[in-house]
Every structure is written in structure tokens, then in C-alpha cells.
Design a protein that fits this description.
By secondary structure, this protein is an alpha/beta fold. The protein is 68% helix and 10% strand. Mean pLDDT is 86; it is low at 1-10 and 370-382. It is elongated and about 95 Å long.
Amino acid sequence: MLFNRMESGRASISDAVYLEVITGLHGTMLPNILAAACLAMVGAITTYETGDRVTAGLTAAGVVVAIVRLIEMFAFRRRLTRAPQLGRAEAVRWERRYVTGTIVTALILGLFAARSIVLGDALCCVMAVGIGFGFGAGVVARLALRPVAALLDLIAIAAPAAIVTLMQPDLRHVGLGLLILMYVVASFEMVRLSFNASIKQITLKRQFEQLSRVDPMTGLANRSALATDLPAMLAAGTIAVHTLDLDRFKEANDRFGHPVGDALLKQVAGRLRAIAAADDLLVRMGGDEFVLVQRAVDDAEAMAMRIVNAISAPYDVDGQTIELGVSVGVAVAPDDGRTAEALLSRSDRALYRAKESRGGYVLARQLRMPEAGQTVSEGLAA
């Protein structure tokens, strides 16, 4: 049940936050370097004092794994500097490599501590167990959002040493084994608490991000969404930008009052939602201006006709029948522009022409006229 809740919370993390978490895992190499340095130092001392070849082998293995993990971190950082941008599926693969490296490191440290206990050198044993405890503390701090990986790391560190100590008949070894097990339980409880707190913070962050993009009046996206979503939609394929301005809205607002005007805007938003596709972008720019970004551009003109027909139908607000009109300017990529700025500019020009014609829609391509000394292709280069 606990892991189900944790995995559910993990899945709710947005792609942007998930990529931030994975980048953070690879953000510093110092813990890995220090763990390798401590293992090398304690391993060298223990090998010198006891002549144990198993300790020497574990020490060498730990250093090799640390070097491999450092190379992997360098590779991840280089990947972040290259196009295309790191996606979630690829980030999952990098995460698996990182987690695998931490588990292997934890297992080596656990076996190293267990071997030191078997050898019976008190100081070497203290140093070896201390490295394990220190690595475990780092796991709690760095893998709180990856609780399953954190638990596997803690078990890999503690299990070998706990098994060895609990197999000894004397009270001191049994006490040490129980102490190690209690450390694991306490550490995972800290992971659980940190996980819950982090998920709450991420959830609040997402809610604030969403609120900052939503128009409170209509529930549509506000104009800030255009800055982020429109370029991404344009990069993904051809789109059509429909810029809308309501006709006779000011007269209705002045005549019937602001509450009626607000109700009209909400009904307009509802009608736009009804005709827009699920993956289209609807934005209220402010006042009585809206933008619909359409992905299926094959029927861009048909969409403009549906917008005019839907918005021009009579409205019923508190028993009052109100009629509005709408002017629509349509710009289609790439013919009318290859950037978000160009598409918005040319749809605005078409909108103004539609308003001059007292409503309806105008396609930007109908306005394309080369300026003096400029070819049509030059005019569309933006």
C-alpha cells in the first residue's frame, strides 16, 4: 500500500519537474568522489593491517564503480547541452543507470562493512560501518523522490553487515546487528516523510503554475500560455491561428451591466470549447479578445466559419436575448509565417480587415501583397 501511494505520487509529477529531479540527481559529483576516497582509504588501511584479499577486491571494485558513475554523470551533462531537448522517456533511462550505480555502490559498501566485522579489527570495523552509515544518510537526502531505489540502497548497505552480526552468538554483535536494522527503519521513515513533503510541494507548484496560466473569468488559458505553448505547437507541425474580437460586446456591456457582460464572456468561452478540438489551444487575450490555435489546419477556413456561426447565435442571459457578432483573422503556418510572432501579427492584420468589413472572417493569405521591391517569398520569411 505504501509503495502504491508513492508510485502514484511519483507518476503525478509533470515532465518538467521530473526532468528537474533527474538533473538534480546528476547535479554534483562530490558525494560519489568522497565515498570512493573513503572506501579507498579504509580499504587500504584494512588490507595493510589484515592482509585480507577480499577487502582488497571489494575496495578495487568500489573504486571502479565510482569511476564508471563519474563517467556516466559527465555523459549526462554533455547530453543536456545537445539537441534535441531531453525527453521523459530518455530521462527514465538515465535514471535507471543512476539508480543501478547507487545500488551496486551500496552493495559493495555493505559487503565491505560485513567483511570488516568478520575480520574482527575494531577500528577498521568502525571505519567501514561508518562509511556505510554516511552513504545511507546521503541516500536519504538525495533519493527521497525515489523511495523504492532508496529502500533498495539501504537494504544493500545494511543486510550483509546485519546478517554477519546477528549470526554471532555474543551480545555485542547482536546489539550491533539490531542497531543497523533500526538505522534502516529510521532512514526509510525519513525517506517516506521527505517523499510526502516533496510531493505536496510539487503539487502546489503545479497548481500555482496552472493558476498563473488560466483566465479566472472564463477558465481558458490566459495570454501567457501563448508565449510557451504556441512556439511548441508550431514546432510540432502546421497550425492555424484564429484571432477573435467580439462585435457589439461593449454596447451590450454598457446597456445591461458588467455582470451580464461577464456572463456573455463565459458563454462565448463555452461555445469556443464546444467547437475546438481537444488538442487545440484556447486563449482569452483580455477584454473581448480571444485566440484559438488549431492543429488540424486542413479545415482552417471551415473552423473560422464555425466560429462566426457559433459566436453570432443569440445569447440568453437572465431572460435577456442578446446578439453579438465576431470578427476573425486567420493565419496558417507556414504559408503566413514560420514563427509565432509572425502568425500572431498576420492574424491580427486579417482581424482588422474583418472588423473593417463589419464582422465575419478574413484569411491572412487574402492580404498577402508584396511591397515595392520585395517578393512574396521575402514577405513571408519571418
